[in-house]
């Protein structure tokens, strides 16, 4: 896949002790993966200018990528790992992740409004059920994802499974009239559900179509712990 940019987000295991500054200090430039923004491997490049950001991947095509840092949703588990490094206190970690969740929610609100009649690919480490009931900065993120004015395709992970939006798989709370997928993976280590990946097409008008799961037999990609 020559000349590809890989758009990514931080997840709970990225915020572990070796990268403790990322979870303890407000400045995202302290984050290891952010520091790799623009790095190239052969003909592909890494795109992560911050822990949350938006970008237009295809010049002239009406589609935008919006990457959210929603790790505050799992901070009660992530922050203890960081505290073990003695880099910061639990309160400082919780505060940093909460600040990024609020900033992500504000950015999502802005991008949904800016792309009325257009298309968004929204990515976060967490499935949509992690967002239920959360109102960072007073913003209803699930409500934004359910916009009737902007076409949204949402991709979340965290769980070790891959599932289509219509599958009813636990953790994929509906964002109708828009669509969302679970793209977890298990790192080749554990499979809580069937593994695989997603493929799809972006049309000239920016619509994401024919998005579907390609599921792989567990014997090929899972190793029991």
Coarse morphology: globular
Main sheet, how many strands, which sense, barrel? 6 strands, mixed
Derived from helix and strand composition plus strand pairing, the structural class reads alpha/beta
Strand order of the largest sheet: 4-5-6-7-9-8
Instruction: Report the total helices.
Output: 6
Helix-strand topology string: EHHEEEEHHEHEEEEEH
How much β-strand is present in the residues? 15-25%
Number of domains: 1
In the predicted model, the low-confidence regions spanning at least 5 consecutive residues are none
Rg (C-alpha, Å):
17 Å
InterPro entries: Metallo-depent_PP-like
Protein name: Calcineurin-like phosphoesterase domain-containing protein
Organism: Emiliania huxleyi (strain CCMP1516)
Written account of the structure:
This protein is of the alpha/beta class and 225 residues long. The protein has one domain. It has helices spanning 20-24, 32-35, 75-83, 90-114, 141-145, 218-221; strands at 5-7, 40-41, 44-47, 53-55, 63-67, 119-123, 151-156, 162-163, 179-183, 195-202, 208-216. The strands form 3 sheets. The chain has a 6-stranded mixed beta sheet, with helices on one face. Strand 4 and strand 5 form a beta hairpin. Helix 3 (75-83) packs across helix 4 (90-114). It is globular and about 50 Å long.
Summarize the structure.
Helix content is 23%, strand content 23%. The protein has 225 residues and is α/β, with parallel strands linked by helices. It has one domain.
